[in-house]
Amino acid sequence: MAISGSCLCAAVSYEIEGTLSDAGHCHCTMCRKGHGAAFASYASVDPDRFRWVSGSDAVARFESSAGEDRLFCRICGSTLGGMSRGRVTSITLGSVDDDPGVRPLSHIFVGSKASWHEITDDLPQFEEWPPGENWS
Ligand SMILES: [Zn+2]
Ligand SMILES: [Zn+2]
Question: What is the CATH number of the domain that holds 19?
């Protein structure tokens, strides 16, 4: 079963063979800025199972940390995922077309959470990365 995703203008689409993992909400300042939202929701992907189906030339990158790029559509601005050392390692849950098959497990980087946002669910919260976990 493949998971498919796309951007708002549909220029960019991608496919993942297999399943996603490590889904969660990130409240870090970079994610808030990059998404223009209270937090970003991501899941990890196996780079070997990810491929662009269309519009790879419309995918823009921004290196927000050394060796870590944020991916977005240069036409419509949709955030698509993240690259680590040139390989796609995470996707935004909001860009997945249907049910991504995973549910967010935690809130991370709540130490830099927006002052105007209140977390009202019971998921575990971590000041930064959870112990032993890293989406890149
Ligand atoms: Zn687009
Ligand atoms: Zn973040």
Answer: 2.170.150.70
Which residues, chain by chain, have CB under 5 Å from ion ligand 2? 26, 28, 31
Q: How many angstroms does the Cα of residue 130 sit away from the middle of ligand 1?
A: 32
Decide if 96 is inside a domain: yes
pLDDT tens for each residue of 56-108: 999 999 999 999 999 999 999 999 999 999 999 999 999 999 999 999 999 99
* Domain contains 19: yes
Say how far apart CA 84 and CA 122 lie, in whole Å.
30
